[in-house]
Amino acid sequence: MPVLNKPDEDLFKDSTMTFGEHLEELRRALFKSLIGIFLGCIFGFYFGQDVMNFVNAPLKSALEKYYQQRSIAIADNEGRALTPAQLSALANHQLIVEPVMVEPRDLAAAMAAVIPEEAEKYLRAQRYKFTAAAIIDGDTFAFAKLLDAQKGVAGRLYSMLPQARQQLLKSAAKGNKLSTEEAATIFDSVNNALKAPSFYNAEIFKDVSLSEAIKQFLDRREAKLAEGSDFPAEQIFELNWELLSSAYPTLVAPPQPTLVPVMLWRQVRNDRSTNPQSLGVQEGFMIWMKASFITGFVLASPWVFYQLWMFVGAGLYPHEKKYVTYFLPFSIGLFLLGVWIAIAFVFGPVLEFLFNTNASLGIDPDPRIGEWLSFFLMLPLGFGLAFQLPLVMLFLERIGVLTVETYISKWKIAVMSIVVLACVLTPADPISFLFLGVPMLLLYVGGILLCKWRSKSAPAVSERS
Predict the structure, then answer these.
(1) 100 backbone φψ class: left, alpha, beta (φ>0; ψ -120 to 50)
(2) Can you tell me the distance from the alpha carbon of 279 to that of 293, in angstroms, rounded to the nearest whole number?
(3) Contact of 352 with 61, CB cutoff 8 Å
(4) Could you give the angle at which helices 116-126 and 104-111 cross, rounded to 10 degrees?
(5) Contact in structure between 190 and 157 (CB atoms under 8 Å)
(6) Do residues 191 and 129 touch, judged by C-beta distance below 8 A?
(7) Mean pLDDT: which of 79-83, 272-276, 312-316, 443-447 is highest?
(8) pTM of whole model > 0.90?
């Protein structure tokens, strides 16, 4: 009878390792990996700022787009919908628009240095004027009767009017109807009286309840008078009007500034809201350190992958170690492909979805740079690891742990596992989950096809043994 060969004696000779030897091999692999990462970090510190600009680019772009769309929505809500020309300018010049209320006098004062004649003309037209509208409910009879009584603050104002206007007030106080011209002359005289710096008298106003704002203004005025100066005539007029309103709040309305809506345009890239925020003094430095470390890890990743595969190869049988040579470049390539897909195609839709969710809730995003960097790392890293799936499937099939038939028959379990893995490797949003889950399902099918293709060219270990 012929003697049967014992292939195991040659096939597995000197291929087993003790637990201690495994630990020693792992220690060497980790030490060499750390040396590579350290050397990579030295270069990373030099490129740290460039890496930060690269990391911030997708977030800043998404923030700029969000606030541009938000400014358009605000303009629509304010009833000042942008014209096609304005929308084109907003998109072409990267602008945002914000409706604000301004006082025309302030604009005219700013224009005075450029076009003084037109500004002065506009200022004269926009100066405050005490008119019938300042009398609550337009009760000019009650106002005339008050002045005619010549008591307290009203008496002070009455004494500053010309005698002819005093006679008209007496007539109006008796119930005689004034003509439009006569009423206009009375209000002109009141305006002139309220412009007088001497209108305010502490003794007369001692029983009048004044607001804290008026009291502070009076204190500042006293300080200026002690220095030999005073506030401008326009401010004195407004102060006296406020004092008159404080004395008779049920009859005289306080002066109200004339505010007009104006669309304020500015560059979106210069807007504070489009820049990630740092909430600590040391956070910027720590982020720079983290970015430098990331750069070093990326630069050292081929070396790290090589060491990890060498550690795996050390525990394999001699006939299995050749797969490490095949798998190493593909493993690095698939990892980098996953990272590139996440950065190039996933960040934009994910950020757009998250910002639109904020907008629907009426919440403006104000991302921290530290949180964003963690998010930026988590997503590409998850994609890079997930893209190793076909290689892992082929490796398990080649060493005889699983077969193609197992992959096909257990597809339901595989789909469930992919769903769970996609949830773990991505942030808590449905967009990134779908962007990872769907490619992983395709990669699972690709892994099956890859196993079938390799089975035709080389039998699996289980078949050879």
Answers:
(1) beta
(2) 21
(3) no
(4) 160
(5) yes
(6) yes
(7) 443-447
(8) no
